[in-house]
Design a protein that fits this description.
The complex is a heterotetramer of chains A (385), B (257), C (259) and D (467).
Chain B (H helix, E strand, L loop, with lengths): L1 E7 L3 E8 L2 E9 L4 H15 L9 E5 L11 E2 L2 H12 L5 E5 L4 E6 L5 E6 L8 H11 L6 H6 L12 H13 L4 H22 L6 E4 L6 H11 L3 E3 L8 H11 L2
Parallel strand pairs in B: 1-4, 4-5, 6-9, 9-10
Antiparallel strand pairs in B: 1-2, 2-3, 6-7, 7-8
Helix pairs in contact in B: 2-8, 3-5, 3-6, 6-7
Chain C lengths: L2 E7 L3 E8 L2 E9 L4 H16 L6 E7 L11 E2 L2 H12 L5 E5 L4 E6 L5 E6 L8 H11 L5 H7 L12 H13 L4 H22 L6 E4 L6 H11 L3 E3 L8 H12 L2
Helix pairs in contact in C: 2-8, 3-5, 3-6, 4-6, 6-7
Chain D lengths: L9 H12 L7 H10 L4 H8 L3 H18 L7 E5 L6 H4 L4 E5 H11 L5 H9 L8 H11 L8 E7 L3 H14 L3 E5 L7 H22 L5 H24 L11 H12 L3 H20 L11 E5 L6 E4 H9 L1 E3 L30 H13 L2 H5 L10 H11 L4 E4 L6 H4 L2 H10 L4 E3 L12 H14 L4
Parallel strand pairs in D: 1-2, 1-3, 3-4, 5-7, 5-8, 8-9
Helix pairs in contact in D: 1-4, 4-12, 4-13, 6-8, 7-8, 8-9, 10-15, 11-13, 12-13
Classes of the chains: A alpha/beta (385), B alpha/beta (257), C alpha/beta (259), D alpha/beta (467).
Chain lengths: 385, 257, 259, 467
Amino acid sequence: MNNVFLEAATNLENASIKKWKEKGGKIVGYTCSFLPVEIFYAADILPIRLRGIDAHSMEISDSYYGPFVCSFPKAVIQLAGSGKYDFLDGVVISNGCDTLRRMNDCWRKMGEDIKGTLPSWFYYLDVPHKPDGHAFDWYVNQLKKLIKAIEQQFDVHISDDKLKKAINTQNAVRRIIWELEKLRRETPLKITGSEAYSAIIAGTLMPVDEYKKHLIEFVSEIRSRITDFAIDKKKVFLGGSICDDFELVSLIEASDAVVVGENVCFGIRNEKDRVDENENPIKALSMKYLSASVCPRMMGWYKDRAAMIIDRVRKIKADGVILQNIRFCDLHGTENGLLERDFDKNNIPSLRIEREYGPLTETGRLKMRVDAFIEQLKSAGINPQ
Amino acid sequence: MKTAGCDIGSRTAKAVIFENNTIVSSAVIPAKLDPVESSETVIQMALDHAKLKMENIDTIVGTGYGQQEIPFAHRLESEIVCHAKGAWWNIPSARMIIDIGGQDSKAIKIDQNGRVIRYTYNDKCASGTGRFLEIMADALHVELNEMGKIGKTFKEKLNISNQCVIFAETEVVSLINEEKEVADILNALHISLANRVASLARSLTIEQDIIMTGGVAKNIGVFDALSDGIGFPVKGLDGIDPQINGALGAAIIASEG
Amino acid sequence: MSIAAGVDVGSLSTKAVIIKSNKIIGFAIIKSGPKPVESANKVMEQLLNQTGIVQNDIKRAVGTGYGREKITFIDNAISEISCHAKGAQFFVSSARTIIDIGGQDCKVIKLDQDGNIIKFITNDKCASGTGRFLDVMAQVMNIDVSELGKLSQKSTKPISFASICTVWAQADVIKHINSRRPAEDICAGINAAMANRVSMMTNAIKVEKDICMTGGVAKNQGVVKALSSILGCKIKRIKKADPQLIGAIGAALFAQEKI
Amino acid sequence: MRPELKEYNLDWLFASTFSVAKNLGKSSPDELEYVYKYIPYVRPLLKPVLETGKPALTFLDLFGDYYTDIVNAKENGKKVVMTTFCFDPCIFYAVENLLPVTLEIGTALTSLAWKRGSTDFMDYCTEIGFSETGCSSQRGAMGAYLAGLGAQIDLVALNMGGVCDTNANAYNFAAQYLDVPYYGLDYPSELTSDEAREYHHKDYRNLVRFIEEHTNCQFDIDRLRDVLEEKRKQDDLMNEIEDMQRLVPNPVPGIYHIMIYAARYTYSGKKKFTKMLEEMVEIVRENVKKGLSGLRNGVEKNRSFLVYIDNYSYGVALYEWFEKKGISHLGNILSRTFAETAPYTTGIPGTAYRIDTTNFDTMIDTLADINARMPMTRTIRGSYDAPNMWLDDTLSLAKIYGADSCIYLGTPGCRNTWSNIKLLARDLESFGYPTFIAYGDSFDSRVETWETSEMRFEEFYKIRGLL
């Protein structure tokens, strides 16, 4: 297990964030994978993905959000309300789903009630739900506005060259991440899911150059290994809604399974396609980020996503798929239903579980389900190929 | 003038006899299957303590879940109003009342005259109710009234997060299977219950003094956790069994004619 | 002699079974205590005393249930889903769909003809549809959970329950009691609500005949009847053994295979 | 799903029920009482509706036609498009071989009129993989169509993406499950900017192309103009009703809001809907002349405004309770238009729409503007406290209606409003409007019994001194 990544993935204000702050660096949090982090790197700002880990109660967020709401945004609000996100210089909220969109309202109101919990810069990015021409233009426009706002707020200039440089670095990272994915397709399997997953989560939580350095070391270290983590184990692919607590991955791997791939909000989705470095940077970013295949928020594009996921499951030779979603996440809850149907058609065994977000407290229930699923895979030994 | 209040809850029945602005006597019994029987038994107990007969009482106000079933009630009043009245009578500086009842919990905001300004109930999914503790006491094989004391002796901080009572119970079962200490589990339960209720108070925007009423207020674990959850100190009733507060409020309202 | 044992440490009760070449030669059921290890030891000790068998005669033991990991005297632990499937198949070899309603969980399991699990589904959304639901209701009604079934048979006009949440349904039950609705109608309502919940899961897995029901709730005629009428096909029940024991029996069978 | 249910086609059930029901207008009160004995589940809806007289018969006639057409769609070579409320279906009537099926209306009617409401259909959706926590308003009727117990759906077209993802998600599921073409209008979080306007227009043009492609027929300009002119009339009538609703006592019968809600999202642009509105206006005008309240007992003790939707899961128990208590129902966000002629559409540019039938382009732009200003797509898209959004609309409406209190009714499936209703309620209270948040489900009576809801309502009106 790589300790740098583990530390970054398990601490809200991790070491590299602290270091960045000490150097007087600015940090902006964001909520959705439809935000091009390159823009912030081009402004020498550290973008970090907002998380809800370590939210042990909801007494603050429950006084703004209603009861029938996903526990992820609630957890984030709870942390912000209890000062755990005070280190942020800004936040970008976007309309990932209804509940995330409303985080804008809840956070602002909380800011009025609990002084100092609203970051000095609080920005809303309006992302379309389709990649069509007019939606694309809208998104380009939104990114231009975002850039202006950043330049004003942080008194910086985001030049095309800086953007191109950021894109170049981020693409490099994507290439390594994709190597990681390919490594997980090999036999012998030289990497466990929790290792890979902590590495992937860490990527959204530390400066890109630092991350790249560690990632390269990590990958070459894995290459040098001779162990096979898949011996007597079933290979599982993890899909579904937001999941940044790799306790879940560890829980799965605690029962004779190894997680070989994932398609969740955090994690590898379509790192295969990169940002076009020969295009105008903003256009190029828009083309990459307004992609229909990554998230069910892009209504009407299910078939693309299903095809992409099934292809990855096959290539990575998973014995089965675990589809999880946070309670009240309709988008993923429903898409998991569709996926389950298509997995059955392709006779890929799958297990659907619904859970609360955050510190794994349902271990008993989850473990029973996962154990049984692994036993099922063992007894049947169905091969997806 | 002698008045009485009778509060038929889902788990317990309470009665209070009230005369010239003082409590003459009170009684609490576990609710029977038949609310009529509950109400008659509990009022009789209260009357006996006061050495009074039914005909000595001028007005009786009924409240609580089974209020419709109280045969001898002259008037009915909502628990919200009764709890507000009782707490305010006991502590006039009260501006917010938090009552954790068997089936639901409420946060009530009142003005300086004890009149209800706003109130709110626990959200759906009842993990914020007294019932929650009863089910857990069951699962943990501890006495309901022992929970608070035992929980206070906790060492390890555990976390129970689930919205659903029964799932929360499953979490408890898992914790038991991990051989966690009962005290630690209880402490976690108290905190999770208190936090659910705290969010009710917060959603009304906090105002002091905050008074906690209802049977659960006797649970020192929940009581203390509630102050932490709200971020302001919560007070208990002064020299009065918090469980009878609803009935007390009813009796006071009766005396106001 | 090849004696195998299975122990099922559930959240409510702990069961143990000893089998010898596919014959059940003894079983014991006790209420689960706070510590699973103790419950397991206690039930095993009781069973050994009953049968006069000594620990060493037991060639292999398998544990299942929520507390399975902690049991000290077992050779390995297997999830209750697999064990219930195994046990049910042992009694009803034609079973393709197994419905098990346990204390904390409701599981519907689909099997192939060799008894391998093809697919299973468990209640994640909500705890109604678990044994706990019936326990809580029975407690409110002030009757023993085993009476729910019998009583509901007498019902003329079952109450239809609004809430599917255990705790809120309980509030409804109290209301109905207060308004003096006959107990049998309330029971019938409770059983129907339960059956409705379970039928959704069963249909979700695309029910295949024969359907076999295990777990304590299988004893509740009311639920079984209501369920089979919603599913539109008969539900087989295990007559030869207490449905509560199926998990433990499955575990014992797994143990026997490995001897 | 229960085997017995699979025997009945939902559209056919409605077609026959409503077609037969409209004849009840001729019956004497005694005859009616006799008939009601045999239709215990339809009664709670039918009785109060019939009591409204003329509009009732048109209402029943309208739905008789609507569902009969759907039942006969295939024979008549018509395609069926699955769509949502808060989408103006008049565009579909501008194509001669297209018929809209509006799920939420189907769910509401099923919940109102059948035994066990639409719960079996809702559960069926869960059985085939749809999220159980998804909004009940679609799950009801959707279950029937996905189970093949209704018209065969040819395409799915709606708006809601960006406003209510849960809604769009449900229709997306239906389209994927049935494997039929899908087009969803998408909405930015802002309403009045030029970019937003352009976005609406381009997005809607794609919808037009989508419809033409999948019905292989062109829009007929004259037909489109007729539909829009009809809609203009309907808007004016609805606005007149809204306007008269401001009077004290409020002369509009509360049940009208359900009737208008049901009709406008299925029959917009059709003559029978206009007829129903005309008959309503006539009655309300009479009430105004006589200074009568729309309440049956004539005494208005309280004026309540429903800040979101209505409840359809208890029959019309809530309306009956309002009647009993003398609470005048000031409508919800679903029963009004945001046409520039509406009494409360402010002068702020871009918040209201104008119907312009000059040429094809102006008409398509008009439709785009209308759809961007349907009650939900207008009101709950952006931040609830942003200009012209939920708080603004609620406050201005509550003010001009002279509301004494505000009520939130919704469904636990509504991620959007349940993510900020506590904030809205808190602000409304600070503006002096006692606000009640109901936890029940507007379409699924299993979530909270009417008895429980009634208890909560009683308590609210009593404790807050509103009656």
